[in-house]
Design a protein that fits this description.
Helix content is 80%, strand content 0%. The chain has 74 residues and is mostly helical. The radius of gyration is 15 Å and the shape is elongated. The two termini are 16 Å apart.
């Protein structure tokens, strides 16, 4: 039981971060155009459209977190 919960937490965190960064750098409509050093570009990309990206990342992370429970029931 504890192992399954830990797996769900890990899947949520990894899914959330991966989805958020994917939207920051791979979706043309959500990328920013900024000529700056890489660390400044990274922080500005993360701040751009934070609510929209956060909600979508939350949904993807939640779906991934539920997978271990759904697989175990089948």
């Amino acid at each position: 039981m504890k192992n399954k919960n830990l797996l769900s937490v890990i899947l949520f965190v990894v899914g959330f971060i991966a989805t958020y960064l994917f939207m920051c750098y791979c979706i043309p409509g959500l990328r920013i155009k900024l000529a700056a050093e890489p660390i400044k570009y990274f922080f500005e990309s993360v701040k751009h459209a934070v609510i929209f990206k956060g909600i979508l990342s939350l949904i993807v992370g939640a779906l991934l977190a539920v997978l271990p429970q759904k697989i175990k029931k089948q």
